[in-house]
Amino acid sequence: MAKEYACRNCRRLTTGRVCPNCNSTELSSDWSGLAVIINPEKSQIAKALAAHKPGRYALKVA
Ligand SMILES: [Zn+2]
Q1: What's the chain's Rg over C-alpha atoms?
Q2: Distance, CA 8 to ligand 1 centroid (Å)?
Q3: From the CA of 2, how far away is ligand 1's center (Å)?
Q4: How does pLDDT run along the chain (62 residues), one tens digit per residue?
Q5: Which domains can be identified in the chain, with CATH numbers?
Q6: Ligand 1 centroid to residue 27 C-alpha, Å
Q7: How far is the CA of 57 from the centre of ligand 1 (A)?
Q8: Residue 29 CA neighbour count, 13 Å, CB half
Q9: Is beta strand 55-61 parallel, antiparallel or unpaired with respect to 31-37?
Q10: What is the Å distance from ligand 1's center to 40 Cα?
Q11: The pLDDT of residue 2
Q12: What pLDDT is recorded for position 1?
């Protein structure tokens, strides 16, 4: 499995060099916790993370 990075801006996880969510290149390999957002409209976690798109998000990004 490829190493995943978390976006410092929106916490979206990605294996690429650019965040697919906000196009930020501020990625961190130092993150913890994992939230899988399937339905952002109905998810309290998505609201807490300010995640507007489905995907996998880190709970904490250093
Ligand atoms: Zn991002």
Answers
A1: 11
A2: 7
A3: 18
A4: 679 999 999 999 999 999 999 999 999 999 999 999 999 999 999 999 989 999 999 999 99
A5: 5-61 (2.20.28.90)
A6: 8
A7: 10
A8: 5
A9: antiparallel
A10: 15
A11: 72
A12: 61
Q: Which ranges in 1-62 belong to alpha helices (H)? A: 44-49
Q: How far is CA 25 from CA 11, 33, 38, 42, in A?
A: 12, 21, 24, 28
**In this structure, what token pair is assigned to residue 46?**
């998505």
Report helix, strand and coil shares of the chain as percent, to nearest 5.
10, 35, 55
Span from the CA of 7 to the centroid of ligand 1 (angstroms): 5
How far, in Å, from the CA of 15 to the mean position of ligand 1? 12
Nearest residue to 19 via CA among 10, 47, 40: 10
pLDDT for the residue numbered 27: 97
Give the residue carrying structure tokens 């290149």: 25
